[in-house]
Amino acid sequence: MTNKTVLRIDSSMRTEGSISRELSDKVVSALGADQVVTNDLLLTPVPQIDEQWIGANFTPLEQRSAEQNEKLSLSNELVAQLDAADVIVIGVPVYNFGIPAALKAWVDNICRAGVTFQYTENGPQGLLVGKRAILVVASAGVPIDSPVDFATPYMRQLLSFIGITNVQIIEADNLMSDPKQIDQANLQIAQLQAA
């Protein structure tokens, strides 16, 4: 890969011993990007949206107050990171069958009508087209893409909703019962290097 920008999102609440972080390191290395922008949701948490954020978001741009513009400033920065990226690598540890709360806060800040998607007569249309996403999904006991895995299909749907349909999954699941599952994830990453 040349002249590419990678946006890396880390959402594990562990800085040490995190499988999703370890595998994301390997994915980013395999991609060989020119620029990597890292957004660590543990070290730099994204606040949950609130009533003031909703009010600012749904106020037309030309009518927003200075306070409303300030309220959306971080969201605008997060969207700009996405817009500038060619590839988005998201570390997704599965917590209690779903995604971490920190990742959900990031999602809520980047899903914005008229910014990352729009409503049309045929339904919602994503605006972040032409990008690739790699989800690095790690789970201690939940089998990835099983009926009890709500994290992976949610992230696929979310990315598709904002226009990112080229989504690849690097999976390391059932790690508590079979730690060798990480070997399969490493093989998937090695195939990234060959691509």
Descriptive overview:
By secondary structure, the protein is an alpha/beta fold. The protein has a single domain (5-191), classed as 3-Layer(aba) Sandwich (Rossmann fold). Helix content is 37%, strand content 21%. It has helices at residues 19-31, 51-57, 66-71, 73-84, 101-110, 151-161, 181-194; strands at residues 5-10, 35-40, 87-93, 117-120, 123-126, 132-138, 166-172. Strand 6, helix 6 (151-161) and strand 7 form a beta-alpha-beta unit. Helix 1 runs parallel beside helix 7 (181-194). The longest helix has 14 residues, at 181-194. The chain is globular and about 55 Å long.
Blueprint of the fold:
Elements: E1 5-10, H1 19-31, E2 35-40, H2 51-57, H3 66-71, H4 73-84, E3 87-93, H5 101-110, E4 117-120, E5 123-126, E6 132-138, H6 151-161, E7 166-172, H7 181-194
Parallel strand pairs: 1-2, 1-3, 3-6, 6-7
Antiparallel strand pairs: 4-5
Domain Flavodoxin-like fold: 4-190
EC number: 1.6.5.-, 1.7.1.17
GO molecular function: electron transfer activity; FMN binding; oxidoreductase activity, acting on NAD(P)H as acceptor; oxidoreductase activity, acting on NAD(P)H, quinone or similar compound as acceptor
